[in-house]
Task: structure prediction
Amino acid sequence: MDFLTSILGRMAGFLYRCRADENYTMLEMTNGIERIFGYPADEIIGNRVRTFTSIMYEEDVPVMDELVGRALQTHTDWTLEYRIRHRDGQLIWVTETGGGVWDEAGELLYLEGSILNIESLYQRIDEQTAGMRVTASKTNEILQSLRYLKLLAVNAGIEAARAGTAGSGFAVLAAEMRALANSSEEAARAISTAQRKDA
Result:
């Protein structure tokens, strides 16, 4: 088996060459489009059965159009993430790196690039951030509890003041409750701030 056939057979995606039109009319595609996404290349090449944009998640098409348009104006490559709808209906996140090809006169001939399945990466990120979301939720619950504790400490201090000398021990307890609530709240806020920065 030759080098390119071997490598392309392992690739979690496909290579393409297409026109710079509204459908990104495919001129050439490697067979990863069928192996990974379920569509035979000859159904999409030349828009024979479906257009390439018809298998993209519709909300992602305008984003792609804008980014590709800007890259073509500056003669630079683009990299973007969007979703392709598998033949079975499942949405799969992909990353595309592409660029335009111009002739010697500066006329745009076509676009070409690679599209790779990164769904597993998105799933891992989602699993990791799920834990962070739970922690953030618990941090908010802690902050609410600490606010309630501070309110109790204030009320305890008021009652201790009313009790005079008899309430002096209660006043010490109320002061300790306030100090604990304040220091705990600072720690919880620091955790919450760090989580927002990492998100």
